From TrEMBL:
This is WD40 repeat protein. It comes from the Bacteria. InterPro entries: 6-blade_b-propeller_TolB-like. The chain crosses the membrane at residues 403-424. SUPFAM superfamilies: DPP6 N-terminal domain-like (SSF82171). Residues 1-34 form the signal peptide.
Length: 455
């Protein structure tokens, strides 16, 4: 055998061994940490990956965050729904949400919401008939489907603090998240489902935008045009709070843990003043960020004093993610200007901000480079008071997705077959060469008058 043949065989053997090892690794489950470990956030979110495994095949256990990774606007940018384990760098794709989408979502996962305790995710659908809600258990990967009495689109809006009841909107027709104002679903009915029994309670509200449960879980705050209505569990209105113009209830975690405040926000407005900049992700920064941060209303309706509004460059313009205490909120801030001394190379930060605006703490950086942007970011609100920030480690991505596993195993088998064929052909060539040499020796012996010697 020539040197080149030996090198080729050695290379193929090494490639086969490597791919077979990869195939074995691909089917091994990741290691979800114990649910009673202290929850935390890594200092940096892991980058977008095609190799992140699914919740159903490798459950992550309790999660601390849920988000959409990628928007399908760049080459090879496939939108993913991703959860982050509460006790380690455990990342999983929420395949149930990715499977509950239609043409109207442009590839985005279906509507989804992480429970406050991080143990489950509710997943709706923008166009489903008959209507139902799926609840994914992150400890087991099991999915419980709750049939609903009416509706064509189902949007999870807010979990109760004990993670047992879910407020959702069900509209009479399909919804399109990229058409109209998604905050104001047309013809939608607000209801609450008990995920332990499946019982559904309809609330007397059909014109609403956002919902937040009270800390005790008995009342819900519902944003309606010009006001916030506070309803009890039966849907009876308890009080109505004024809502300033161009302000919105700041998401399902808007209610402070002491029941005193409701956070409100105004989405980022845009301007095209040439003096302003356009940030790298293509979003136009607000002309006056000082007017667009979080502000607060008195949730009790007694006229009690509330903190001053926070500046937009401190608290961002998104919904509240949670509260670490009655005096500190957790938010996802906005991208800073490239000219700012705080510019962090196209990153958002999960940030804890005191309600008086005097202190802030950065918890985790979130990439937003325009290719694999992050959207619909949710935090397990009940875990916020105990969150620890830990150095980011290597990502545990669990069992590779099925397509990747099939590809890796197929490639390994292909190389194995190629190596076997090459080895068989090598043996055949060696036999032919041995036979040829024996024949030549026999012929030479015959010519010399000697009997042919055995090879």
């Amino acid at each position: 055998m020539g040197r080149r043949g030996r090198v080729d065989r050695t290379f193929k053997a090494a490639a086969v061994a490597g791919l077979l090892a990869a195939g074995v690794f691909a089917v091994l489950p990741g290691q979800a940490l114990a649910a009673d470990a202290k929850p935390g956030l890594p200092t940096e979110m892991a980058p977008y990956s095609y190799l992140t495994g699914n919740v159903t095949s490798a459950p992550p256990g309790r999660a601390v965050a849920l988000w959409q990774y990628g928007f399908g606007v760049e080459f090879m940018d496939f939108p993913q729904a991703v959860v982050l384990g509460a006790s380690g760098d455990v990342y999983r794709r929420l395949d149930v949400a990715e499977g509950r989408h239609g043409a109207e979502t442009q590839g985005d996962p279906g509507p989804m919401l992480l429970s406050p305790d991080g143990t489950k995710v509710a997943v709706g659908h923008y166009d489903i008939d008959p209507p139902d809600l799926a609840v994914v258990d992150l400890a087991t990967g099991d999915v419980t489907t709750h049939p609903l009495p009416e509706g064509r689109s189902v949007i999870p809006l807010a979990w109760s603090p004990d993670s047992t009841r879910l407020a959702f909107g069900a509209s009479t027709g399909p919804d399109n998240p990229y058409s109209g104002d998604p905050r104001w679903p047309v013809g939608s009915r607000l209801s609450v489902v008990d995920t332990t029994s499946g019982a559904v309670t309809k609330l007397p509200v059909t014109d609403y935008a956002a919902v937040a449960f009270a800390p005790a879980g008995t009342d819900v705050a519902v944003e309606t045009p010009g006001s916030i209505r506070v309803l009890d569990a039966a849907g009876t209105e308890q009080r109505r709070l004024p809502l300033p113009a161009e302000r919105h209830l700041a998401g399902p975690s808007a209610w402070s843990p002491d029941g005193r405040l409701l956070a409100i926000t105004r989405p980022m407005t845009t301007c095209f003043d040439p003096a302003d900049y356009v940030d790298p992700s293509g979003l136009v920064q607000d002309c006056d960020p000082s007017t667009d941060g979080l502000s607060f209303v008195d949730a009790t309706g007694t006229g009690a004093a509330v903190p001053r509004p926070l500046e937009g460059d401190l608290s961002g313009t998104r919904d509240v993610l949670g509260w670490t205490s009655p005096t500190e909120v957790v938010v996802l801030d906005d991208l800073t200007a490239p000219t700012s001394p705080d510019f962090t190379d196209q990153k958002h930060w999960v940030t804890a901000v005191s309600v008086d605006g005097q202190q802030s703490r950065r918890l985790m950086s979130v990439p937003d480079d325009g290719n694999y942007g992050v959207g619909r970011f949710h935090l397990a609100g009940a875990l916020a008071p105990d969150l620890e920030v830990r150095p980011a480690g290597s990502a545990d991505s669990g069992t590779w997705p099925t397509v990747v596993r099939i590809g890796a195993i197929a490639a390994a088998l292909g190389l194995l077959v190629s190596y076997a064929r090459s080895a068989w052909r090598g043996r055949q060539r060696a036999r032919r060469r041995a036979a040829y040499r024996a024949a030549r020796l026999a012929a030479a012996d015959t010519v010399a008058g000697h009997p042919a010697s055995a090879p």
